[in-house]
């Protein structure tokens, strides 16, 4: 069993019982710590979309750091069920929305999102397809962030690149929509 711990914010130190569902890989604590230190100024009262949510660790961390709403999307019902349990456990279900759907259908339902976390299954090679759809549908607010975690498929995005970092064999790129 994977144990997730919220690493910063008002729920810091809270342990969320994770799970080991094939295809999920939670973002490592040290990566989340660095990422959230970078995006902290953008989090207060934001609406975040945790696309390909898996364990929900990114959306939960955002709620702990001041986001007003987290939308968790995953096509795997087991993942959504576990995220619901975790949100219930730390009492953030009111600030959470759970969508059991594939990302393309889910993206069509959103507008005015402040931060989007993209951490798709690496083997599916769909990161750039998701980015293109987000740009085409104009989901992200002006000055909103798109955060891509990847291994091999390099994200191609028309937004401004504000940070890029390597963590072992994983990379994170943070883009900001400036137009």
Can you offer a commentary on this structure?
The protein is of the alpha/beta class and 179 residues long. It has one domain (3-176): Vaccinia Virus protein VP39 (Rossmann fold). Helices cover 29% and strands 30% of the residues. The chain is built from five helices and nine strands; from the N terminus they run E-E-H-E-H-E-H-E-H-E-H-E-E-E. Helix 2 links the parallel strand 3 and strand 4. The longest helix has 15 residues, at 29-43. The chain is globular.
Features of the shown structure:
single chain, 179 residues, alpha/beta, Rossmann fold, two-stranded antiparallel ribbon, 5 helices, 9 strands, globular
Instruction: Give the oligomeric state of the chains in this entry, treating copies of one chain as homo and distinct chains as hetero.
Output: single chain
The CATH homologous superfamily is called Vaccinia Virus protein VP39
Number of strands: 9
Helical stretch count?
A: 5
Q: At CATH's second level, what is the architecture?
A: 3-Layer(aba) Sandwich
The profile of the biggest β sheet is: 7 strands, mixed
Q: Tell me the CATH topology.
A: Rossmann fold
Mean pLDDT: 90
Shape: globular
- The portion of residues assigned to helices is 25-40%
Order of helices and strands: EEHEHEHEHEHEEE
Strand order of the largest sheet: 5-4-3-6-7-9-8
What does the radius of gyration come to? Answer: 15 Å
The CATH class designation is Alpha Beta
């Amino acid at each position: 069993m994977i144990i997730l711990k919220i690493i910063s914010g008002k729920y810091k130190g809270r342990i969320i019982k994770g799970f080991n569902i094939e295809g999920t890989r939670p973002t490592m604590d040290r990566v989340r710590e660095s990422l959230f230190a970078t995006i902290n100024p953008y989090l207060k009262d934001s609406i975040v979309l945790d696309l390909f949510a898996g364990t929900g660790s990114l959306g939960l961390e955002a709620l702990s750091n001041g986001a007003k709403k987290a939308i968790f999307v995953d096509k795997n019902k087991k993942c959504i069920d576990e995220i619901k349990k975790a949100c219930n456990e730390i009492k953030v279900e009111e600030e959470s929305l759970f969508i059991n759907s594939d990302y393309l259908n889910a993206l069509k339902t959103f507008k005015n999102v402040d931060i989007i976390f993209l951490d798709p299954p690496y083997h599916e090679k769909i990161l750039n397809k998701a980015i293109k759809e987000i740009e085409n549908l104009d989901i992200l607010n002006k000055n909103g962030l798109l955060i891509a975690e990847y291994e091999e498929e390099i994200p191609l995005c028309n937004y401004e690149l504000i940070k890029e970092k390597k963590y072992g064999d994983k990379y994170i790129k943070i883009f900001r929509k400036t137009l």
